[in-house]
Amino acid sequence: MGKNMHYEAINPPKVSDAIVSQIEHLILDGVLKPGERLAAERDLAQQLNVSRPSLREAITTLKSRGLLQSRRGGGNYVVDVIAPALTNPLIELLKNNPKAMFDVLELRHALEEVAAYFAAVRATDADREILRCRFAALEDIQHGSREPQHDAVADASFHLAIADASHNVALIHVMRGLFDLLLSNICRSLERLYTREGSYEVIHAQHQAILQAVLTRDPAAARQAAHVHLSYVETTLQAIDAEASRQELSQRRLESLRALEANTSLLKASV
Predict the structure, then answer these.
(1) C-alpha distances out from residue 60 to 25, 32, 51, 57, 64, Å
(2) Residues with Cβ < 8 Å from 96, sequence gap 6 or more?
(3) Are 193 and 199 in contact (CB under 8 A)?
(4) Do the Cβ atoms of 193 and 200 come closer than 8 Å?
(5) How many CA atoms lie within 13 A of 206 on its CB side?
(6) What confidence score (pLDDT) does residue 15 get?
(7) What is the mean pLDDT of residues 150-173?
(8) Are the beta carbons of 126 and 31 closer than 8 angstroms?
């Protein structure tokens, strides 16, 4: 006969705990994004089919855990729980240091190749629809004037949508935490790439290759397409830098020669 044991009664979870758990999962999965405002209390209570006191208790718990915050003017917002550790002052230093651009590109290689691979494996129908929408925004750039700041937002949003489709929550939050740095890096890259005739058309075709590989569920092709894209950006920027250095060196030589000729002319005139 079994030994008598003392067990504690299992009670059903509190409603507020269930609300906390659901919102935590939505934040972790990237459905609720940093800075996003929750629905008004009355509407959210109706959506969750809970009482407003239970909802208030859950929101208080989420605030104490640093996941939600209230802002002036009302409303509860999702806190960016990853970015603070990755931003000031490190991100500002990276953003303002042109030489760090290539370090950021190396980091993008690692993150975005993995993101593209798993997006091809795990993307849902809804993910694929989002990717088509993000790519449509890139298509619009083809028919408009080149504006690096505006275009960088569409570009970064496409790459973040790829990360979202990977369904790797760690990767998603690291990518979103790095959004400002990613945006700055893409903007700086486009400003310089636009000086090269036809470069954006090449980039657009590379984005399309990444999209197509994800849509056709080909992870190896998706990773390769992401690699080709970032390698092209890196090597093209290096070529632009090298050309600029040659131009600068040649200009200094020309200025030195002109200064020497001017001094020689003065000497001849004084004889």
Answers:
(1) 17, 17, 14, 5, 6
(2) none
(3) yes
(4) yes
(5) 20
(6) 87
(7) 90
(8) no
